[in-house]
Design brief:
about 65% strand; about 300 residues; about 0% helix
């Protein structure tokens, strides 16, 4: 039996409706490699921290009930779990058209839980579920069309997209590109080149540093920035912008909205009701703050 990483918490497994795996596969692996997971109707949970081992669990549910090998027929799916060199590959693919509600086929939700070493990259995709990833160093590509994303304790190049859910990001270092078409973004303890975009929700950032872009078409932005590297850009078409910036850092400020409030005595430049443009602490990295229909508030800490 493979020991599970110590950072696995009770809430990690709650995204699945059942605790008993339908199938389990274990592999001896190196401490670096890649993971590919594909499923069309379930969740994906990936946890780093193993040493020389990988464990893949399949969870099958239907109508809120956990299914076992004895009480379900998955002959209309091709279920593949295998080791391909340095890659772990897991896929649930439908191979039959028997999927209408009258014959009862095709209503199953097939989810994966994967425990792997820390230095693994991943390519994860589901068309109908949530994805949660934690404890990995490497390039991570994450896609879901119908669920939320929860990413934590990652380092490397992160490319994450959901078409129908919220995004939560915690303790991430590196190049981060996260996008959602239908939810909010909540992030904390980020460092690096950060790009966050949502078409339908608010954005809240706590303790972020680096080169930062955050854009939304339908909500407010609140950002607590501890350090600005190449740039800071916060833009919304439908709400307010509140930015708390490092008090001791110099930058070039350009803020526009229906009203702009700049809470500092160390500003030099143009200051009007709807626009503030100039330098703070002598100038430095560009800071662009924009809203089409709200107030921009700039604070310093």
């Amino acid at each position: 039996m493979v020991a599970l990483p110590t950072q696995v918490r009770a809430e990690d497994t709650r995204i699945f409706l059942g605790d008993e795996p339908y199938r389990v596969e274990e592999f001896s692996v190196g401490n670096s490699g890649s993971l590919t997971v594909r499923t069309s109707g379930g969740n994906i949970l990936v946890v780093g921290g193993q040493s020389g081992k990988a464990r893949v669990e399949v969870h099958v549910t239907k109508n809120g009930r956990t299914l076992t090998v004895e009480d379900t027929d998955l002959s209309h799916y091709r279920l593949t779990i295998e080791k391909r060199g340095n890659e772990i590959f897991a896929e649930a693919r439908r191979i039959s058209s028997r999927n209408n509600i009258w014959n009862g086929y095709g209503n199953e939700s097939i989810s994966f839980t994967v425990y792997i070493p820390t230095d693994y990259s991943s390519d994860l995709a589901t068309s109908g579920g949530r994805i949660q990833v934690s404890g990995l160093n490497g390039a991570q590509k994450i896609r879901t069309s119908g669920g939320s994303l929860n990413l934590e304790n990652l380092s490397g190049d992160i490319d994450a997209t959901t078409s129908g859910g919220s995004i939560t990001l915690t303790d991430i270092t590196g190049n981060l590109d996260a996008r959602t078409s239908g939810g909010s973004i909540r992030a904390g303890q980020l460092a690096g080149d950060i790009r966050l975009i949502t078409s339908g929700g608010s954005i809240r950032l706590e303790d972020v540093k680096g080169s930062i872009t955050a854009q939304t078409s339908g909500g407010s932005i609140t950002a607590n920035v501890s350090e600005i590297e190449n740039h800071l850009r916060l833009e919304t078409s439908g709400g307010s912008v509140t930015a708390t910036l490092p008090a001791g850092q110099g930058f070039d400020l350009d803020a526009r909205g229906s009203r702009v409030v700049n809470e500092t005595d160390f500003f030099s430049g143009r200051s009007e009701r709807g626009r503030v443009e100039g330098t703070v602490n002598g100038g430095g990295a560009p800071v662009h703050l924009r809203t089409s229909s709200g107030t921009v508030t700039i604070r310093y800490n």
